[in-house]
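FORM 7B: Structural annotation worksheet

SECTION A. Query
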Amino acid sequence: MSEQHVRNEKGKFGKTIQVRLVSDLKISKNYYRDVLGCRVDDWGHVERDGMILILQEAKTSQDVKPNAPSKKRNDYPTEWEGPDFGWDTFIHVSWNDLDLLVEEVHSKGGKVAVDPYVGSHGGKEFKNAAFEDPDGYMIVLGAMRDISFYE
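SECTION B. Predicted structure
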């Protein structure tokens, strides 16, 4: 293999798994299993469909730091300026699944921090909602479709 070919070759990233520092591993494992319906193992691996996390217990509660709201931007490719609250995890879901998931979490005693809301930008209609886990991490569900689909 030539030296030029080796320099142009790039490796591939695999599946990305978010690691979440939590204040109490047992409480968080129970939440993700009992409220969000995830498979949770003794290691703290959490999985449901395409959502995968690894929970790790923080040394101190001060080490648990959910994201603060981001700065608004006016340079997105559409009129959207960014979220109004901190996002820790964003999960793409289907339009119809979003309401089903919100109802499921609500019925299991989970905190629905942001009820489903609909908006539009860039010729698309979106629907978002958010759950808050025991440490205040915001898990955002988002669905999007072409506006013409619903007209």
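SECTION C. Observations
The longest helix spans residues 95-107. The CA atoms of residues 36 and 101 lie 9 Å apart.

SECTION D. Sign-off
Analyst initials: ____
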